[in-house]
């Protein structure tokens, strides 16, 4: 097995709390000349969650019109 891999062939940094994962990751990058980074950036994940919220609730993120505000006051 090349350095940075477990016996089963899974890269060590895939585990949650591996021992010296950063070292193994950097070694792997040096050997194979690749960048092992996130699949999704934090921003793109945030955008995805926002779009899902908007699908569930079409009013999400929109300013309420005066009429809807009045209706909500009556409900209370």
Question: Which helices and strands occur, and which strands form pairs?
Answer:
Elements: H1 21-32, H2 42-56, H3 66-75
Domain Nuclease associated modular: 37-71
Region (Disordered): 25-76
GO molecular function: DNA binding
Name the descriptors:
rod-shaped; 76 residues; 49% helix; mainly alpha; 3 helices
What is the gist of this entry?
The protein is mostly helical and 76 residues long. The chain has three helices and no strands.
Structure description:
Residues 37-71 form the Nuclease associated modular domain. Residues 25-76 are annotated as: Disordered. Residues 52-70 have a biased composition (Basic and acidic residues). InterPro entries: NUMOD3. This protein is mainly α. The protein has a domain at 42-75. Helix content is 49%, strand content 0%. The chain has helices at residues 21-32, 42-56, 66-75. The longest helix has 15 residues, at 42-56. It is rod-shaped and about 65 Å long.
């Amino acid at each position: 097995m090349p350095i940075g891999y477990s016996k089963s062939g899974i890269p060590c940094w895939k585990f949650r709390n591996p021992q010296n994962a950063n070292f193994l990751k950097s070694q792997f990058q040096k050997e194979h000349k690749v960048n092992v980074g996130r699949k999704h950036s934090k921003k793109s994940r945030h955008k995805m969650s926002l779009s899902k919220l908007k699908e569930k609730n079409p009013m999400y993120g929109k300013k309420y019109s005066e009429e809807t505000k009045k209706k909500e006051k009556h409900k209370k």
